[in-house]
Amino acid sequence: MKAGQLAAGGVLLRVWCGLVFAFLLAPIAILVVTSFTAGETVAFPPAEYSLRWYGKVWQHVLDAPGVKPGLGSVFLLSVRVGLVVALGATGAGVLASYALYQFRFRGMAILRQYFLVPLMFPQIVTSVALLVWFSEVPIFGLLGRLVLGHLILTLPYVILTVGATLEATGTDLEEAAVGLGASRPRAFWAVTLPLIRPGVVAGALFAFIISFDTFTLSYFLYSADAKPLPMWVFEYMAYFLDPTLAALSTLLIALTLAVVLAVDRLVGLQRLAAQR
Fold first, then answer.
1. What's the structural domain count of the chain?
2. What are 212-259's pLDDT values in tens digits?
3. CA dihedral 11, 16, 18, 20 (to 10 degrees)
């Protein structure tokens, strides 16, 4: 193949990637622009621009008179649930990934796929199954079943991320530490865990974001005393058709970007991508 053909192919590939990214980002861009409208309804492009709907979101946070209450409390609940889920899924996911990497036996492939079952089934199937199970075995509180459901949903993401990092780094240095007299837990904690830290942090980030944003599973497991943010948004959409949700969604997008940038400063996303 000639150099000119290679160059033309490279240009076409870049153009195609640019079109794909534009297609994926266009709805987000429209949402962000719409959030600054000064009108009473959702319209694109806005005739006039204003920050009035961001002020309306703040009124919801403060439970001001005349607005739907509870935004601040459901946001804090989603953050708390997300942090607990991220901590639990990361701890369990790291141990599971390490065991799947270290131990090889007949049926390992089946066991590995078993951990990924929540990714294979539609969320509505998992949600209905958990709802029936919690109804038959009422040993968990209202908040506890929400946390457990999110743990089941997010655990495969941590296992995949940490497992990919383990495959890239290996455990040769850990074996060397054991050979020099360190115990297996100490060698893992002092040698292997720092090496796979980017995968662990990325897995925790995925678990938090998925728990914070998931709707289908939360819809089946939430209650009035354990209502996450997506359910508040769903209830708001049922009764109001103004740009408040566009402003709220823009703020949540900004929050997600801030978390990703913070993780990039801590561990480096390029380093993680190179390992994977």
1. 1
2. 988 888 888 888 788 898 998 888 888 877 888 888 889 888 888 887
3. -170
